Amino acid sequence: MDRIRIRGGRPLSGEIGIGGAKNAALPVMAAAMLTDERLLLSNVPRLADIQTMGLLLAQHGLAVEPVGNDGRTLSLGGTITNTEAPYDIVRKMRASALVLGPLLARTGEARVSMPGGCSIGARPIDLHLKGLEQMGATFRLDGGYIDGRVTGRLRGATIVFPFVSVGATENLLMAASLADGRTVLANAAREPEIGDLARCLNAMGARIEGIDSDRLTVEGVACLHGASHAIIADRIETGTYACAAAITGGEVMLNNARLDHLGATIRILREAGVEIDERPGGLRVRRLNGLHGADVMTEPYPGFPTDMQAQFMALMAVSDGAAMVTETIFENRFMHVSELNRMGARINVHGASAIVRGVSALSGAPVMATDLRASVSLIVAGLAARGETVVNRVYHLDRGYEALEQKLAACGADIERLSG
Ligand code: UD1
User: Fold this and answer.
1) Given phi > 0 = left and psi -120 to 50 = alpha, else beta, which region is 393?
2) How confident is the model over 45-61, as pLDDT tens digits?
3) Tens-digit pLDDT profile for residues 87-112
């Protein structure tokens, strides 16, 4: 299994190109199932999760093909010939559950392996199922699979989410686009990735209003058509490299990054002493002085993203104060804490909060993590640590960060991938 070795202590300096958002590309790819015509997607990041979604869609009968040579443009199209999402794919990537809504809307049936627990908590999909039930679908559990059926078309409904769910909002938005009548999604998630999906659906002929708000109104249409769509920049990749630049006391230009999707992240980074300016073509991040402790609580968008919590904690580990980091979205999303502590951090977890007492320096160590963002937080920490850090289980990073070590090495980091 590959590992990444970092020798810390070099300030990052240079430019990093920010890719398309994984969490936007995945649902938009699933939306290709809503039409037989061709969906042409550009700015798709080259990531393991994108490949997994491509495999899943191919297994449902779609042709998923790269266009051109950059590997970032995909053509998706074709008829659904198989309505089963198998265990072997769903267990690798929970976002596979996003095919449920499109399958039911197009074929009236879906058999999707029940996503299990994962390292950041139980992550059920009950809200997806309840919403689809309100639209006329019925479900039963059979051999670890959710068997869904609907007679005729899904029907428009008013769905009030009891709490905010990104995946459930996306699944129901796709289902509602082809439903009979009007659907209202209230207390919907407002993440920019949902806006991206909604804009792509509208380009395919859907009639969605209220985009970027917590109330989406969808007038169902009988069929959708092909379209071209460019995926938005990845705000989490942007925030991650901003933390990397900041922890090393460096200065980096993040090309293609978007300020408007990063409000809470930028506010908290500035509070911590990081300079962030909008420049033509992206964002410039630099840190000249010390880092201050800044408290943060994860919340649905526009709040501070749970997907930035681990990286921000690594930064706070070397601040000149203390910070309280509270996780409200996922239980059990502090696996990085014990590993950061092995690198010399002083972090204590009390329930859903972690108290981070800054230390003057971290020291390199062999570490590993069991999810994507926890893994990258160890990379961020390693960039500033004294000596050598080896991050194991790199496949988590490959799910969400394209060319991570190349991008960091180009800015002067001493980082390399060790094979085997
Ligand atoms: C998406 C993102 C993930 C991010 C998360 C929160 C993708 C592919 N993944 O995940 O990177 O961390 O949003 O911003 O876009 N829940 C239920 N029942 C449900 C659905 C969710 O109880 O039916 C709970 C979850 O366990 C969690 C919370 O709701 O505690 C939020 O989950 P959700 O917003 O649905 O996250 P995902 O869509 O899985």
Assistant:
1) left
2) 999 999 999 999 999 99
3) 999 988 989 999 999 999 999 999 99
Helix H or strand E encompassing 160: strand 158-160
Find where tokens 């699944």 sit: 171
The C-alpha angle 19, 318, 402, rounded to 5 degrees, equals 15
Q: How far is the CA of 164 from the centre of ligand 1 (A)?
A: 8
Catalytic residue among 118, 200, 243, 411: 118
Are the C-beta atoms of 9 and 363 separated by less than 8 Å?
no
Query: 3-state class of 401 per DSSP?
Result: coil
Q: Is 331 in the pocket of ligand 1 (CB under 6 A)?
A: no
Separation CA 27–CA 9 (nearest Å)? 38
- Cα 47 to Cα 52, 260, 292, 371, 399: the distances in Å are 9, 24, 34, 15, 5
Gap from CA of 363 to ligand 1 centroid (Å): 33
Whose CA is closest to 105, among 205, 224, 274? 224
- What's the CA-to-centroid distance between 166 and ligand 1, angstroms? 6
Q: Residue 123 corresponds to which tokens in the numbers above? A: 């992550």
69: left (phi over 0), alpha (psi -120 to 50) or beta: alpha
Active site residue 118: yes
- Ligand 1 binding pocket includes 188 (Cβ within 6 Å): no
Whole-number Å distance between alpha carbons of 152 and 137: 10
